[in-house]
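If your schedule permits, I should be very grateful for your opinion on a structural question. I have a record of one protein: its chain in single-letter code and its fold written as discrete structure tokens. Would you kindly read the sequence against the tokens and tell me how you understand this chain to fold? Thank you for your consideration; the sequence and its tokens are set out here.


***
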Amino acid sequence: MGNKQVTNGDIQARIMKGWKPNRYLSNMSMAYFANPGDWVATKLFPICPVSLTTSFYYTFAKGDLARDNVQRKPAYGKANPAVMGHTDNTYKCEVDQIIVGIDQIGTLDFQRSNSPASIDPRRSKVRFTAEQMNLHLDVQFAKNFFHEGVWENEFEGVDGSPSGNQFLKFNDANFDPVHFFNARRREIKLSGRREPNKLALGYDAYIALTEHPDILERVKYTGSTANPAIVTRQVLAQILQIDEVTVLESTYNVAEPGQPDDMQFICDSKGALLCYATPTPAIDEPSAGYIFTWDMLGNGNWMATDQFEGESGTHSEFIEGLMSTDMKKTSDDLACYMSCLLYTSDAA
């Protein structure tokens, strides 16, 4: 029609001939994909790429490395050789998979009606596949690292009169967070020869610490009218003398298909893990844990996606996601897990 202006009459005529306007907005849609920054699995322990699904790694004996093995040289003689022992440990990366289908015939309607990109089946299902793999990684992180019974060094919050490996819960006004974490830092430094550098907090545990009277007292004079004092993750890390505070805030639906949604935090919202983790895989460097990942395609990616045609006559295609990991606790000496951090009535 060239540059001719389209009038209301033109539109009415097209509708009479069967044309239907595209009523969907192209600049927004409602899709409950997670905030990419919420995924937690790779924030705590480093990814260690491996070329084989199963193999070994060395663990050098801490006692031999930490012992003073230097001896006085006897006259006309020599000192006995020092012992530097090691053991072998293994990892095994198992393959996990997701497949989601695309109806090629149904896709034609979206292509021909100039539907928004957000509803394009290929685009949305590729993102869905990546989302599912990240979600699964966080679920595996929670199962392997973030619950009672995993770490040898564990503490439990109690309502009153703590003893042994117990402490007053985080939302108890008498709980002394600075003293508590100073003591845990000291223990890890002695047992693992490293200051813990990361504190992973469940969502409700983090909120409880930011609202604790002792923490608020330490920051209340640091603000101004223009910049009021707020307990952020960075502020909390400074107060507790820990390099990084991570909040485990990824969520998922635990309901079965067809049942009402039951949204929960993937990691225990009332748990916490204090640990030392090396920023990147390193030789001659300890870490409380590692995430071993097998590069199955040999292209440097540990999350692999593929697209393939369905059987003849089905007019279908599939998006596939593959991931092969082994989340491994590598040192109990470098971690401390804390559970039951809050009064039940103060956290949903």
Summary: The chain has a mean pLDDT of 87.
